[in-house]
Specification:
alpha/beta, Aldehyde Dehydrogenase, Chain A, domain 2, 6-stranded mixed beta sheet, 475 residues
Length: 475
Amino acid sequence: MHQNYVNGAWVDGASAVANINPSDTADVIGHYAQADAAQTCLAIAAAAAAAPAWGCSGTQARADALDKIGSEILARKDELGRLLSREEGKTLPEGIGEAGRAGAIFKFFAQECLRLRGDKLASVRPGIDVEVTREPVGVVGIIAPWNFPIAIPAWKIAPALAYGNCVLIKPAELVPGSVWALAEIISRAGLPDGVFNLLMGRGGVVGQTLLDDRRVDAISFTGSVTTGARVAQAAIGRMAKVQIEMGGKNPLVVLNDADLANAVNCAVQGSFFSTGQRCTASSRIIVEKGVYPAFVAALKEKLAGLNIGDALKAGTDIGPVVDAAQLEQDLQYIRIGRDEGATLAFGGQRVRRDTEGFYLTPALFTDCSNDMRISREEIFGPVASVIPADNYEHALALANDTEFGLSSGICTGSLKHATHFKRHAQAGMVMVNVATAGVDYHVPFGGRKGSSYGSREQGSYAAEFFTSVKTAYCG
């Protein structure tokens, strides 16, 4: 039994659930505790009690703890990556890469502990100085998604601790194992009791309790648009600080002058790797008409050479969809696309392998328009639409014609168009001749419009959410 971690101790939950391998549904990874509202309240009380002392703790102690956590993650990245791939369905190289990224994030924020800056200014009034400093927010509730089960928790937990906050994390119900393993490492880093707490359980119970309790000063959420809107309303309703990362319907523009091989690689990596289960996935591929036939032919050829199979097996390019519900959602959207008149040019079929799993071949739709549901709604699976564009200006207009604004990419050999696109793409992140999915851990992450709400995540910009600014006047 994998227990919750509350106030410095491992404790049973009110119940437990099985963690199932999507590559092999007969493989039970383990049973994981489920917190109820009462246990969540105990954790909140512990975090609130620990917050004053931890918030005033020395930066070196925080730096040392985070560095120790990062070092152990990196030393065990193969083991942790294998667990991640086993429970979420990413290929093993992707899982190991994500685990390594989590370790690097903790290492980065270990140093950010020592880099928190303020300002000392002269007042407009003689004889008075002004100091501007940053202080911890207090108790932070973290609600994490299933698609990056160790990296996203890491990029929320590490800055929260670095800037002196106490943490309550609720991992996604589908993938508790990676966060449990991370919590076990954190539990041995020397943090005071109550500073870090793990609460596995249902969103409607644990998540809702975190949202409703006034002792939780801030909420950081990554998940669906629908749930994100409810989180925002609940947090703002009691004036808690809130940070929300939601969906994307990210465009990849391919112009006539693009390097065709690179454009195809960008499309395959951005649209279909990690089984398309990334908020930054390029699910709309907008292609200028002059290169459209050649691009589609090359993309279909590339997809035909991909191996869909068990995430842990060598040679697998794309693993399974995360669970039966997500698989059915993907298949439903494939039916919708065909009913809308799009051409299913490749894939989109469930396939069988040696083990019973949620396997789906990458689905490529052509002859799409930007007003189709498959071009407007986030599917969150290996499904992409190819949309023709008359010219660059038309492509840019199509790219921006979405309620989302997370990531936007372009493949082109034109400096003029690349420069214009970087300025005029309505997205928080812009990619030129690289895939829309794939970001660095030391720079800000986030979007615009319906994709994000609140301060950016990652890098030094994380301080905007996890700290409060104080201005002091000294006479």
